[in-house]
Amino acid sequence: MIGLHPFAVALVSFTVAGHPAPSLSPVEELIHDPSQRVGPARRATGLAMTTLVLAALLTFALTTLFSMAGVGAALILIPVFLAFGIELQTAMATALLLNAVGMSIASITFVRKGLVEWRLVVPMLVLAVGLSPLGVWAAHGMDRSLLLWLFVGFLVFAAAMMVLYQPKPRATRASLAATLALGLPVGGAAGFIGGLLGVGGGNIIVPALVASGLEPKRASASAAFVVIFASISGFLAHVQVARIDATLLGVTALATMAGAALGARLATEHLSAAQLKRAIALVLIAVAVKTAWDLLWP
């Protein structure tokens, strides 16, 4: 029988804070009632309806938030899935596939608005997609604690990029050669790290593209398109050793599609970049601190 990861329980409690109820929440019921916990037999028969509804609601909210920044929500969905007893590799595979679905929906809006920088996206795809399976291969041989520590580091890095990175506006864009010189290695690094940690790598790509001279909205839109294929590549590698719950994937995929469509619309029409970055950073830091706490004092 697989118990809940303490950090994951705290994450879900943090996410739904402000909505008290007289009875135990679905996640708390999983803690106090062993018969409700997700184990191998539980996976075989499917997850409880309350679990599926909660997972869908969290996926919708988080995907909406992260899609506005042009990055996938995989890095925050992984601990949510851990809250339901999903094994780490399976959580990574599911989150990566949802990443691809969400960024595909968001990219429809970004492409229609003419925000994707095709001269940079196409060559970046080659390295990002090519190195993502290498990251997955490296993850399979790693200790779980080490992998989670790397995940904590990535969360802190992503939060720092959201809050501290303030690129200076440029009168003209960088040349194609200069853009590729920075973008291609970053695309490769994003693909490898995305495969290693089960994330899309958008939080690496966006700051690099802005530094190369791209306007922030164009950088987010271009990164979103790259993340689609990097996530698919990582998913195909992870799924070889993962057990996917079809029902969970179905309901969260629908929630992802709705959240990504809403997030992309808000990003192109109503987005306050500074407020959005602060909100995402707070969530990332909260998750990183709780994960590190549980690793140090299990």
Write the topology of this structure.
Layout: H1 6-15, H2 26-32, H3 40-45, H4 49-68, H5 74-82, H6 88-112, H7 118-140, H8 144-164, H9 176-197, H10 202-211, H11 216-238, H12 246-269, H13 273-296
Helix pairs in contact: 1-5, 1-13, 4-5, 4-12, 5-6, 6-11, 6-12, 7-9, 7-11, 8-13, 9-10, 9-11, 10-11
From the structure above, extract its key features.
298 residues; 75% helix; globular
Overview of the structural elements:
With 298 residues, the protein is an all-alpha fold. It has one domain (6-296). Helix content is 75%, strand content 0%. The protein contains 13 helices and no strands. The protein has helices at residues 6-15, 26-32, 40-45, 49-68, 74-82, 88-112, 118-140, 144-164, 176-197, 202-211, 216-238, 246-269, 273-296. The longest helix has 25 residues, at 88-112. It is globular. The two termini are 18 Å apart. The relative contact order is 0.19.
Summarize the structure.
This protein has 13 helices and no strands.
Cα separation of the termini: 18 Å
Choose one word for the global shape: globular
Overall pLDDT metric? 75
Residue windows where pLDDT falls under 50 for at least 5 positions: 1-45
What is the string of SSEs from the N terminus onward? HHHHHHHHHHHHH
Number of helices in the DSSP assignment: 13
Number of domains: 1
Rg for CA atoms:
18 Å
- How can the largest sheet be summarized? none
Q: How much strand?
A: under 5%
What's the multimeric state?
Answer: single chain
Could you give the count of β-strands? 0
Structural class: mainly alpha
The helicity comes to: over 70%
